[in-house]
Amino acid sequence: MNPGQQIWMIAKLELGRVFFSRRSFWVYLLAIFPTVIFLGHALDFSLKAKQWGGDRKTSAEALNQVQTGMTDEKVLQLLGKPINDSIRKRRIRRDQDPAAEKQPEVRRFMMYFDGKRRVDLRFEDGKLVSRNMRLLMNFEEDRKVYAGMFQFFYLRLGIFFGCLGIFINLFRGEMLDRSLHFWFLAPVKREVLLLGKYLAGLIAAALIFGTGALFSFLAMVLPQDASEVQTFWQTIGLEHAFWYVAAAMLGCVGYGSIFLAAGLLLKNPIIPAIVMLLWEGINGFLPGVLQKLSVLHYLQSLCPVPAPLPNDMPAVMKMLLAPAAPSSVPLAVLGLLALTVLVLLAAMQAARRLEINYGTE
Amino acid sequence: MAVYRRGYQRYTEGLTSHATRMMVMPRFTWEALLSQKFVLILLVVSMFWPLLCAGYIYLANHSELWQGLGGGFKKYFSINGDFFAIFMKAQSVYALILASVAGPGLIAPDLANNALPLYFSRPLTRGDYILSRMIVLLGLLSLVTIVPGMLLFAMQAGIAGGDWFWKHWYLGAAIFVGFTLYIVTVSLVAMTSSAYVKWRVVAGALVLAFFFLLAGAAEMVNSVFRVEWASTFNPGYALGAVWAEMLDIEIPDDKPGAFECAVFLIALSGGLLALLARKLRAVEVVK
To answer: Using one digit for the tens of pLDDT, what is the confidence trace for A30-80?
Structure first.
């Protein structure tokens, strides 16, 4: 049997364990979670449209007449009863000027719906200070939300922890189960064994997270307005879907190799996982050169829509944030693959020197 | 005489005090934990931020040092709830990392080696066992949370004087109670992971994943549904909201308030305790 056949044979043996082990179920949950949330969003849209429509709807013309500075009484006269109406008194803080206690500030929030748009009105001391209008189902906005979800949740957390679970299990798990020596007794080179196990983990992770990315993308697109969806598929839709799936799969390639090597090189692979989680977390704040020393930079370069910044990010953080210019697509793919090869070579070295001592585990 | 022929009788001599018995496990575990290089490194690194904060307190209380910079700088040098909230958030990251390293080894080995009957055959209840395991984390995590926090508060009170202390005593109470709440939550997560996951490595990853994934999932629900209520289910946010209430700093109107967050934290802790109690039994009937 040549090494290629041996690698495939090991991968086939490992695949069942990776796909169907009880320990892998939470990985499926991670992959499917965004799809569930976007399906929930579609359901929420249809329920709200039904609940807020009919008698509770306000005409768009009347809503357009509302101007900042109007009193809450005047707005109620003009628009009628809102769908939501809440009043909050500002709490006087201990450090605040005592004079402020004499005139407590009252904030009032009203919400109207005109059949398509949701309008949030905010009053302070009886005067309208802000009017926020947005479509209940907004494809453009949803695509940005998806981009944010994909880059902040799916890549940084979902695929990260999913790969941590799958790839660390391949060697470290067998050591803890005291079954690695069976593999080492087989007449195969350690490098071949490592590649076979890596291939099994990669196939499983790429399939699980690639499918998860595709399903969540479809769950975001399909409930939108039919004409918009058709135009989207005819123009950039397929390309976007492809790059999201590719980024998810390449994430598994990069993170997978690192966690496989960590499981071999270190007794406690949680330490490199923590370091990597922090490194990837502060990635945007690092100088450009250092940003390129992370898996996330290359994955983000492949994403078709840049992720929006979180709304509640403090101004100082926004000032410090300096994302490096995205790498070109060939460079991003090659960069990731080169990193993977280097890490796998280091892992092969470690596998060659590995001596089993179950007693210390 | 052969061992099986030997007769045994109940130990009738005096017992050590309850508190002494409870402290046996923490004593040995602390020794083992402090011999780990990574734990020591983390403890040292976690002192940098409190040192910086101490420098800041010194500067804030010595206006003559920055007089040349103009009066506008005064607002940047005030020691209030916001200052301590930032300090607490930074230190809580170190505490979480420490818990993910130290926590998984607390219960998992006892379960894996069937050691629970040995503990429970001694004058130690399940509650005592859980509490003594929690004391291990309480002691370790308070080194990076409560201790530096209270030292900073004492430093500020010492420099600023009695007036400041009487006006701001609630900040000290908030640091103590807030961090205690944090440690209890993190400890329960770490201990439950340790009890349910046989492997220390996986249990450690689970502690991190619990906090990071719940935070990510809550933010995802918020952004997809355009709501803010999901933040309640982010343990980091929930603890921050409770701290904010105690430190008397404002929470944005549209975000969940401290009450909802406190209810979630109580429910979470109760659920984790129930899971722990279910797992920790002296005997197990396998059908």
So the answer is: 999 999 999 999 999 889 888 888 777 888 888 888 888 888 889 888 888
Q: For B205, which of A34, A44, A273 is closest by C-beta distance?
A: A273
Looking at the structure of chain B, the number of domains it has is: 1
Q: Quick one: fold of A56-135? A: Beta-lactamase Inhibitory Protein; Chain:B, domain 1 (3.30.1450)
B136 belongs to a structural domain: yes
Decide if A222 contacts A183 (C-beta within 8 A). no
Contact A271 B216 (CB under 8 A): no
Check CB contact under 8 Å for B250 and A134. no
Q: Does B105 touch chain A (CB under 8 A)?
A: no
Task: Tally Cβ neighbours within 10 Å of residue B105.
Answer: 19
Q: What are the residue ranges spanned by the domains of chain A?
A: 3-45+138-360, 56-135
- Chain A residues closer than 8 Å to B163 by CB: none
Choose the weakest-confidence range: A301-305, B56-60, B194-198. B194-198
Percent of chain B with pLDDT over 90: 57
Residue B129: inside a domain, yes or no?
yes
Q: Give the full edge-to-edge strand order of the sheet including A127-135.
A: A84-89, A106-113, A117-124, A127-135
* B93 belongs to a structural domain: yes
Query: A33 at the B interface (CB within 8 A)?
Result: yes
Asked if the C-beta of A39 comes within 8 angstroms of chain B's C-beta atoms, the answer is: no
Rounded to 5 degrees, φ, ψ at A221 are -80, -50
Does the pTM of the predicted model rise above 0.90?
A: no
ipTM: 0.84
Q: CA A133 to CA A141: how far, in whole Å?
A: 13
The verdict on residue B103 lying in a domain is yes
